[in-house]
Specification:
single chain, mainly alpha, 72% helix, globular
């Protein structure tokens, strides 16, 4: 396991948890990305400006990290554009089907002791583990 980085993972997890907690405390809203993004696409959202500001903050922080620490974006992933688009559409469909994404259920829902989020997160994790096992060990895929 050459990609084991416990310190950065712990710091990143702490920052995600802190930001989700602050968002809940200051705005009374769960910081689930798919729900916030979905509300931006619906014109009738009363808190559309808040949602846009949150998403703009995500993009802006990515730009800042890209400038300050460009190595954070290095990858060996070389999927073709159609594959990436199909994957993105499947993820979008899955978040709508599951009434939320991993950040909403895994970080925010479990911390609020939501039974639905516990089941959803267990399903996400099980599917991810099974997919990784099949891709790496049964199909001879790359790491």
């Amino acid at each position: 396991m050459h990609d084991f980085t416990p310190v950065s993972a712990l710091l990143g997890g702490a920052l995600v948890g802190l930001s989700a907690s602050l968002f809940l405390l200051t705005h009374g809203r769960v910081a689930g990305i798919s729900g916030l993004y979905g509300g931006v696409l619906r014109r009738a959202s009363p808190d559309r400006a808040l949602r846009l500001a949150f998403l703009a903050g995500l993009l802006l922080s990515g730009v800042v990290v890209r400038i300050v620490y460009p190595a954070a974006f290095e990858t060996t992933w070389t999927a073709a554009l159609p594959v990436a688009l199909a994957a993105g559409l499947l993820v979008g469909f899955g978040t709508q089907l599951g009434n939320g994404c991993t950040s909403g259920h895994g970080v925010c829902g479990i911390s609020r002791f939501s039974a639905r989020s516990l089941v959803a997160t267990a399903t996400f994790m099980s599917a991810g583990i099974a997919t990784t096992f099949i891709a790496r060990h049964l199909m001879g895929g790359v790491r």
